[in-house]
Amino acid sequence: MSPRTESEAVERANTAFYETLERGDFDELSALWLDATEAGDTGISCVHPGWPVLSGRGEVLRSYALIMANTEYIQFFLTDVKVVILGDTALVTCTENILSGGPAEESGELGPLVGQLVVATNVFRRTSEGWRLWSHHGSPVLAESGDEEQEED
């Protein structure tokens, strides 16, 4: 497979991760992560913004089950997506522009929508079934980049 085709396959796997979260499909999300035999001794890991490191398939998937159960609406707009592949490992960095809905109001309608910026690093491993998530790390963007400040000068 050509490097460009491989990069596109990794980007599709990355996009599938976010689309699955948007749909709240826990079974499909579970299938996107490495299983215990594929992950080896190090296992899988995840850091959600503001959370401690979660290690091991059970702990990581449990966190997503909790997020899905407590999030009525979520949509990701990915920007600044970059893919680097080295052997059977791929690194994806991106900005998650997240729009999520709070708890339903008394009227039964979705609560106010909230926007958030998170920078993420997703590490994938090549398997016989395609690219699978090995690690996800998301950090909230708390400060504006220097680019905006320079434009004002």
How would you portray this structure in words?
With 153 residues, the protein is an alpha+beta fold. Helices cover 34% and strands 38% of the residues. The protein is built from five helices and six strands. The protein has helices at residues 3-23, 26-32, 36-39, 57-69, 146-152, and strands at 45-47, 54-55, 73-86, 89-101, 113-127, 130-140. A six-stranded mixed β-sheet has the order 2-1-6-5-4-3.
Short characterization:
The protein is 34% helix and 38% strand. It is α+β, with helices and mostly antiparallel strands and 153 residues long. The protein has a single domain, classed as Nuclear Transport Factor 2, Chain: A.
Task: Describe the SSE topology.
Blueprint: H1 3-23, H2 26-32, H3 36-39, E1 45-47, E2 54-55, H4 57-69, E3 73-86, E4 89-101, E5 113-127, E6 130-140, H5 146-152
Parallel strand pairs: 1-6
Antiparallel strand pairs: 1-2, 3-4, 4-5, 5-6
Distance between the termini: 47 Å
What is the general shape? Answer: globular
Q: Major sheet: size, sense and barrel closure? A: 6 strands, mixed
Compute the gyration radius: what is it? Answer: 17 Å
Keywords, please?
153 residues; alpha+beta; Nuclear Transport Factor 2, Chain: A; six-stranded mixed β-sheet; 5 helices; 38% strand
